[in-house]
Design brief:
- A three-stranded parallel sheet has the order 1-2-3, with helices on one face.
- The protein is elongated.
- The protein folds into two domains: 43 residues, no CATH class; 66 residues, no CATH class.
- The model has no long low-confidence stretch (mean pLDDT 88).
- 43% of the residues lie in helices and 21% in strands.
- With 138 residues, it is of the alpha/beta class.
- Helix 4 packs across helix 5.
Length: 138
């Protein structure tokens, strides 16, 4: 029994959102699903969102450059934050996508090294980290 290790919970690779649609729009989506154009409502909505984002791709890229944000997945672990603390640096995190603060990061280390967090997408961190940084999450 001493060799049993807990397997970490798998982190989701997406974020669930809720939207409200009118009955007519919903019926039209259901009709397209029924006719086989899409596998389900979620498939239709994801496809529509991707097409809309693609149509505004250049504007998104310019905005990311203007705001000096990182695009995609960005992990912040204990080693990186320890280096920042040793150098006397404070991070101002700006991510479009997913920002993750590792489970090896203590609330004290996070407060000492993270000055602000702006995430357009999702921030994954323990409840203790989020509580410690609550006044810095923009």
């Amino acid at each position: 029994m001493a060799d049993i290790r807990q397997i970490r919970d798998k982190q989701p690779d997406n974020e669930k959102i809720t939207i409200n649609l009118g009955f007519v729009d919903l019926g039209r989506i259901d009709l397209l699903v029924q006719e086989g154009f899409y596998s389900n409502r979620s498939d239709f909505i994801r496809t529509a969102i991707r097409k809309h984002l693609d149509a505004h791709g250049e504007a998104v890229e310019r905005s990311i450059e203007r705001h000096t944000m990182e695009l995609g997945l960005r992990d912040f672990g204990r080693a990186e934050l320890e280096q920042c603390r040793a150098a006397g640096e404070v991070l101002h995190i700006k991510v479009v996508g997913l920002a993750r603060i590792g489970s090896d990061v203590t609330p004290e280390l996070a407060r000492a090294t993270i000055g602000s967090i702006t995430v357009l997408g999702s921030l994954q961190a323990s409840a203790d980290i989020k509580k410690a940084l609550a006044d810095r999450i923009l």
